[in-house]
Amino acid sequence: MKIVISGFYGLGNTGDEAILESIVDNLRDSLDAPDITVFSLSPEQTAKEHNVKTVYRGWRHDNKGKIKALRDADLLISGGGGLLQDAYPTKFLFGPLPYYLLIVLLAKLCGSKVMFFSQGIGPVTSTWGKILMKMANLADFVTVRDQFSKDYLHNLGVKKPETVVTSDIVFAFKKKEDSACMDSLQLKGDEKLVAVSMRPWFEHTKQFEQTAQILDELIEKKGVTPVFVPMEGHHDTNASQQVMKHMKHSDKTIMLGEKFTPNQYLNFISNCEMTIGMRLHALIFSTLSGVPHIGLSYDKKVESLLKRSGMWDYSADLMEIDAEKLTQNALAILDNREHYASIVRDNAEIMRKEAVRNVDLLKENFLKK
Fold it and tell me: What rounded mean pLDDT belongs to the chain?
């Protein structure tokens, strides 16, 4: 089976690279020698890391390569992740929403089937974005990672393809033992590590000061060692440094490097007592590892994940953070870690089975009998 994968790949985002690794690994486990081509902004790097064929994803180069790949393909997988949204600037033909939907249109014109795969939908608020979303009806089958996304699609008028709620394909991530992150820190071995995942969110910065307050109290009362995990390179490193600027005990924190793989970050988070953070896939890695977590939700996708992992009651909307309350929640989690870890593990197993179902549904709908 020849498959083209289109998503936010080759741009250095750990969460999206974890999605790609999960898709590729699970396709290879479930299909007989699939022929996989990935549209990537860094085609050579993606080809090397995943042993796949690649084509440059942007419109500036190799459009003939895109057309050839789609003409040869049995299926275009669009996803996973939050591709269909206009939170970032969307112009007539530029921005995430028109890009991914134009790839879908091109695939259909080239005779390929299309599956939206393990996607999170929205927000789509502009008039032009809502018009563009009608093109999603071209898809032959859709899986989304939460009920909110399914409802959102239907409210946008996308009702033609069958839509099934599964979970983020990263819950089917195949972990390989790798201690690179831990080795880089040169720890004594008795530290209580707390993973911290910060990211920029437009002009909102109050969360940096609030997170600093929480971490200072955890250092003073529990002797933890906060470790910042930059899952999107310098963007997250800069956001982490903003937190550190507000801390009294920034000298007791550690910053991980930016160049680790998704698997290496996952291995690191699995060694932590808990996670506090914003990045969706840092929270997914925590769930996968049975690590209790407190999320700062900047988007419905984060809230949806926290509800499914069982940790929403201990977390907060980014715009409604009560630092004192979250500190008390963090202290309670550290005092009763195994109780919360068992909740997370149980929910993670449910989502793992749902994640694998993405590939099962692909086989049922597109594998030639």
Answer: 95
Report how far residue 257's alpha carbon sits from residue 279's, in angstroms, rounded to the nearest whole number. 16
C-alpha to C-alpha distance for 6 and 116, rounded to whole angstroms: 10
Q: Where does residue 62 fall: left (phi above 0), alpha (psi -120 to 50 degrees), or beta otherwise? A: left
| Structural contact between residues 305 and 15, judged by C-beta atoms closer than 8 angstroms | no
pLDDT the model gives residue 135: 95
pLDDT score recorded for residue 90: 76
Asked if 10 and 72 sit in the same domain, the reply is: yes
Domain range for residue 55? 2-165
Give residue-wise pLDDT tens across range 244-280: 999 999 999 999 999 999 999 999 999 999 999 999 9
DSSP H helices, 223-279, are 233-245, 262-269
Q: Over 90: is that where the pLDDT of 296 sits?
A: yes
Given a cut of 80, whether residue 197 has pLDDT beyond it is yes
What are the C-alpha distances in Å from 229 to residues 144, 267, 285?
Answer: 27, 12, 12
Find the radius of gyration of the CA atoms of the chain. Answer: 20
In the chain, the percentage of residues whose pLDDT exceeds 90 is 93
Q: In terms of domains, do 220 and 111 share one? A: no
Least confident piece of the model among 57-61, 94-98, 99-103:
94-98
Contact 10, 57 (CB under 8 A): yes
On whether both 146 and 221 belong to a single domain, the answer is: no
Strand-strand pairing, 293-297 and 113-119:
unpaired
339 in the same domain as 195 = yes
Residues 159 and 192 placed together within one structural domain of the fold: no
Of 305, 302, 292, nearest to 334 (Cα)?
292
Half-sphere exposure of 23 (CA within 13 A, CB side): 30
Residue 365 lies in a domain: no
Return the axis-axis angle of helices 280-288 and 14-30, rounded to nearest 10°. Answer: 50
